[in-house]
From TrEMBL:
Domain HTH lysR-type: 6-63
Similarity comment: family membership: Belongs to the LysR transcriptional regulatory family.
Alphabetically ordered keywords of this record: DNA-binding, Transcription, Transcription regulation
Domain of life, source organism: Bacteria
Protein name according to UniProt: LysR family transcriptional regulator
GO molecular function, one term: DNA binding
Pfam family, one: LysR_substrate
Matching Gene3D superfamilies: 3.40.190.290, Periplasmic binding protein-like II, Winged helix-like DNA-binding domain superfamily/Winged helix DNA-binding domain
């Protein structure tokens, strides 16, 4: 019999009925009716082509055929339980693999993870750089943070932000825009072109011009006085999203991390 055709529910009923030698007590254990137990046993007998129980004046008895398979059946159920425990162990694991853009990891994520880890010394983080498409199956990720309009095909939650801000070195004129892939177009010829918003932010802090970057990315540098905000923040349809496929999103450790990062 192929594994896909194994009558697992009927075998579970057989195990309970064999232990109790009573359809009534087996029904109580399984939270079904005695009639349902009897139907499952008859269906299993039809499938296997053997008789499993006989009624006698003393009550219910197992046939030799049923007794021959019980030890292996119960060992199999124990293996199932071990398998479930092994799979659930990942839920209580203190190790989390997170993918995020390089600049966000450096400027925002790592300081927050350090704060979170101070409250739980057993936490372990694996950080993966991911600026474009994120493959959860290949990277064995628990959570990803990406820049976009929404969570896409995954479950997700946005990180709160004031949109985009233009920043420059405090006290400098910051007349020249600094360009980076995906930046908001500005008037003037860029003196510096860099690979991402984090490098644009660093270039602005060095006095090489002004950079328009995500407010979330610049938040710590603004608070530390490395850069000053020029003008008012601008709303953006894009933002940073914490995302994961539904199975990962449901994990307790991922839920806890999402909540902590959302409050950071």
């Amino acid at each position: 019999m192929k594994r896909t055709h194994l009558p697992l529910n009927g075998l579970r009923v057989l195990d309970a009925a064999a232990r109790h030698l009573s359809f009534t007590r087996a029904a109580d254990e399984l939270a079904v009716t005695p009639a349902a137990v009897g139907q499952q046993i008859r269906a299993l007998e039809d499938t296997l082509g053997v008789v499993l129980f006989r009624r006698t004046t003393k009550g219910l008895e197992l046939t030799p055929e049923a007794e021959a398979g019980l030890a292996a059946l119960r060992a199999g159920f124990l293996q199932f339980e071990e398998s479930v425990r092994a799979m659930q162990a990942g839920q209580s694991s203190k190790s989390l693999t997170i993918a995020a853009p390089r600049d966000l990891t450096e400027k925002w994520l790592m300081p927050r993870l350090a704060e979170i880890a101070r409250d739980d010394a057993e936490l372990r983080f694996v950080l993966v750089t991911a600026d474009d498409a994120i493959d959860f199956t290949e990277a064995n990720l628990d959570l990803a943070i990406r820049w976009g309009e929404g969570p896409g095909e995954h479950e997700g939650e946005a990180l709160e932000s004031d949109g985009m801000v233009t920043v420059g070195r405090p006290g400098s004129n910051a007349d020249t825009p600094i360009a980076w892939p995906g930046c908001v177009a500005e008037e003037g010829v860029a003196l510096v072109r860099v690979g991402d918003a984090g490098l644009a932010l660093d270039a602005a802090a060095q006095g090489l011009g002004r950079a328009t970057v995500p407010e979330l990315l610049a938040r710590d540098d603004i608070e530390a006085g490395r850069v000053a905000v020029l003008g008012d923040p601008k709303a953006s349809r894009l933002g940073y999203w914490m995302v994961a496929p539904l199975p990962q999103w449901r994990q307790k450790k991922v839920k806890t991390l999402v909540e902590a990062l959302g409050e950071a």
